[in-house]
Write a structure and sequence with these properties.
Chains A, B: This is FAD-binding protein. The structure is a homodimer. Chain A is α/β, with parallel strands linked by helices. The first copy, chain A, has helices spanning 42-45, 93-96, 122-125, 138-144, 147-157, 173-184, 197-206, 216-226, 242-251, 271-277, 288-300, 319-327; strands at residues 2-8, 11-16, 28-36, 55-56, 61-68, 80-82, 86-87, 107-108, 116-119, 127-128, 165-169, 189-193, 210-212, 232-237, 252-260, 268-270, 280-283, 312-315, 334-337.
């Protein structure tokens, strides 16, 4: 089969790879329906994280079950399945506590920009749809496997409640999905920090009520202006930089909540500042598996369409262009079709 | 009147001071029933925080109303009242959101180791008991004004629930009150990190089920041993040092909660470590006013006796010895009687 391999920063190739095989009886092999490029894939692409030896890329997927290991009974060949970027057995204590992305047997997916994918912990990880959904729904179901699940987690961790005021920091695919999540959870006001006109448009389509273009202290001041001077009930931090985290913490009202879902790079939180703010802080890799049944339902019923974050669709063999377009901000997120 | 004044590190004097007067129509003057020395008073006493010009000390109090300003109708002269170390109008948006210790008109008390005290925001801050409680209850009601309220907040912020496992980091008066709070909130297991035998005894009397004497990585390993290898549901950080915070964060299970109530000194939380732990973190000055009616009831009904943390009682004029005994760890907490 063929799939994306990173050889060095900015050097993504569509290489011939060995076909994946069942390694453990808990594995499944799926044929990729659609996959995509994640904002976090740009960290190694840009050389911010070391790339090391050439290795496959990609952790988002939906597909058709090809083969299952002897212990996998939850899905069967031919079914259309949605999974998570973090696999989980869905039975361990951390899974039972609601944190499958901290499963004791967790494996992070990393070979999904390819024609076929081996899914460890398939029994706990994969959720099959009743029927094969129409192709027009595949992008939204793909989004559920990561960015939509992560946006939902941001809203969950930030305790977005009916009627509350939410601020979304970051207008990437996760931030935009966080807007959907805040809207679905009933937020009365959704303020998005964004400077990019096409993303602002999509944010408004997803339910944003206000756009703030200022950043840093000015951005925080603007949020305070919009929230009776005290800040927002919930802030959804969807970037992962020190600046974004500072902005998020200072945009929350006393006793408000910040959910942070961008992998932090160079972030340290000052204990005394957090203390006097009374703000609650929770983040981490999204427990997507917990949300899958609900989010799949919302997509299939047409309530949400997170697939709209894909503003570029390419054949899988043009994966290199898919990265470049995102790197140059020509695309929010690139869909790849095998 | 007379009261405690800090002149320099380790120089506490019982000086003659001006009698407090009503300054604002929202003030009340109370005659102190009992007051005490707080662990946080030791920061300036030890010179860790600058002392500056000589100034009065103390922020914990119960007493009898002497006089009220024109806008104070909630309490009247002669009543026995309990307050909070942070005053609040109990009407502003932060108060309504449950964070009176972040009241827009908050004033931190700082003159309470004295015979009379001026209470700003008296209308929102003071809660009167129906009758004058017996003197044997005064120490526990005094504890409610700070350490018991703060212990309760630690358990609240750490989401202690019926049946959950709680770890208390710190065996000072707040840590011991946090044990009471965890017990009252139904924790199934309460593990206290303590090396001091008399404090361990009191912790057990308050409901601790396990004592861990190890610290740092060894302490964390011991907590994991006691919690199926994953850590505790809730960790109550009642110290405020970098070591205590690290220990707290690492003692919580994935997706668990840390409530931190010791004023942080030199604490910075690593964003990436917090991220991958999935741990929720919330702290701050305790919203004591929110808890006052409930905690006063628990004391008056005999359910809790947080006054047991006072293991030294002195006449107010011996306040200097009260500080010294706590500094030398001869006392957990010193009660002062005018």
């Amino acid at each position: 089969m063929r799939g994306a391999v990173i050889h060095a920063p900015r050097d993504i190739r569509f290489d011939t790879l060995e076909d994946p095989k069942i390694v453990h009886p808990t594995d499944a092999i799926i044929r990729t329906a659609v996959t995509c490029v994640c904002g976090s894939d740009l960290w190694p692409y840009r050389g911010v994280e070391p790339t090391g030896e050439p290795h496959p890329m990609g952790h988002e997927y939906v597909g058709f079950v090809e083969e299952v290991g002897g212990e996998v009974t939850a899905v069967r060949p031919g079914q259309f399945v949605v999974g998570s970027f973090a696999t989980s057995d869905n039975t361990c204590v951390n899974c039972r506590n609601g944190f499958p992305s901290n499963c004791l047997h967790r494996a992070f997916m990393s070979t999904c920009q390819a024609e076929y994918i081996r899914i460890p912990n398939a029994q706990g990880t994969l959720v099959a749809t009743d029927d094969v959904p129409g192709e027009e729904l595949w992008p939204s179901l793909l989004a559920v496997s990561d960015v939509m699940g992560t946006g939902w987690w941001a809203a969950d961790a930030a305790e977005v409640r009916p009627g509350s005021t939410a601020v979304v920091v970051g207008d990437g695919a996760v931030g935009l999905c966080a807007v959907i999540a805040a809207k679905e959870r009933g937020a009365g006001r959704i303020i998005v920090m964004s400077r990019h006109e096409p993303r602002q448009r999509l944010a408004r389509a997803f339910g944003a009520t206000d756009i703030v273009t200022e950043r840093g202290d000015e951005g925080v001041a603007r949020i305070k202006d919009l929230t009776d001077g005290i800040g927002a009930d919930s802030v959804l931090e969807c970037v992962g930089t020190a600046q974004a985290m500072r902005q998020a913490l200072r945009s929350a009202r006393p006793g408000g909540d910040v959910g942070f879902v961008g992998v932090p790079h160079g972030v340290a939180v000052d204990g005394q500042e957090l203390f006097f703010s009374h703000v609650g802080l929770r983040g981490g890799p999204a427990p997507v598996r917990r949300y899958l049944p609900d989010l799949i339902d919302r997509v299939l019923s047409g309530r949400i369409a997170p697939g709209r974050v894909f503003d570029l669709a390419l054949p899988l063999d043009q994966v290199a262009e898919g990265y470049l377009a995102m790197d140059e901000r020509r695309a929010i997120k690139t869909l790849l079709r095998p």
